[in-house]
Amino acid sequence: MVEPLIRKIIHLDMDAFYASVEQRDQPELRGRPVAVGGARERGVVAAASYEARQYGVRSAMPSATALRKCPELVFVSPRFAVYKEVSRQIRAIFAEYTPLVEPVSLDEAYLDVTHNLKQLASATQVAQEIRTRIFAQTQLTASAGISYNKFLAKLASDYRKPNGQFVIRPEQGVAFVEGLAVGQFHGVGPVTAAKMNQLGIFTGADLRRQSIEFLQQQFGKAGHYYHAIAQAQDSRPVVADRPRKSVGSETTFAQDLTLFPELLAGLRPALEEVWEYCQRTGVLGRTVTLKAKFSDFKQITRSRSSVGPIPSRAELERIGRELVESLFPLAKGVRLLGLSLSNLTSVQQAAGQQLTLNF
């Protein structure tokens, strides 16, 4: 009997990426609490350095709140073009070790190194070498989690941050999950964690004791996922360059947002990641969808379709802004915003369609 192949998955996550890039490029900011974002009265923190996090400053936090927590906080305007270029450098390094790279955002990705191109002895060695090369080329640090599935690799990458790596081996998975608070699980947000706590589920061990039927009754379709991760199971493969029906990104905020400028600032990282994907892959889309999840966990979407593919970032931002406007007046605070692009086509196809139309 052939034993099933045990995957070797690495989750690479850059440390305080936007803020670290700013500290790298502006030496006077090193060692100081830095926030990337707007310092104006209604501004929002897009990213915070580790020095700022020690004061409780977090992404999506209103700038005024951040300044109250840390009066010495230095605000820097974001430079997304620079962050994208650094991201491209990092992904070029990944590609030298495996073709199975699944980017999650500009600053993180999953790598399947079950069979690595360098024929290094272990996934641990691959992760260490990649992190060393990232620092040598960009002067930025990355953290890595190594395990046999994506869920555990993601957990592991948070375990030794910043500038560290951690391994969860197959025989350690269940015990590792059992000892964690459910709020530490990727995919379990603050509202879900609070509901689990109300049901007497505080740790992975508590979650593991629940039947799949009970979890589906309480959490709907997500119940199956929660049951699987409580057993340290995750069958999702690392998939690179797959044909996509849509591309999207979303952000869960540390505090509910209620003001229009806050929501616009909160949507910006998702917008940048979606457009970066379009530029990197040569794909354009026709339909923009805004996803909003409110403080009571209820969720709505708003969509808008164009006659042809959306040709520019400015046009995508304009549509995103109009979709955010359509949420007002707000009855409740917003805890999550997402933006996705669908009805995808390649730039070449879009150009061909345009030529056909202009007969």
What does it look like?
One of its GO terms (molecular function) is magnesium ion binding. Monomer. It catalyses: DNA(n) + a 2'-deoxyribonucleoside 5'-triphosphate = DNA(n+1) + diphosphate. It is a single chain. The chain is α+β, with helices and mostly antiparallel strands. The chain has three domains: 168 residues, Alpha-Beta Plaits, CATH 3.30.70; 58 residues, DNA polymerase, domain 1 (Orthogonal Bundle); 112 residues, DNA polymerase, Y-family, little finger domain (Dna Ligase, domain 1). Helices cover 40% and strands 22% of the residues. It has 14 helices and twelve strands. The strands form three sheets. A five-stranded mixed beta sheet has the order 5-6-1-7-8. A hairpin with a 2-residue loop joins strand 5 and strand 6. Helix 4 runs antiparallel to helix 5 and helix 12 runs antiparallel to helix 13. The chain is globular and about 50 Å long. The N and C termini lie far apart (63 Å). 39% of the residues are buried. The C terminus is likely disordered.
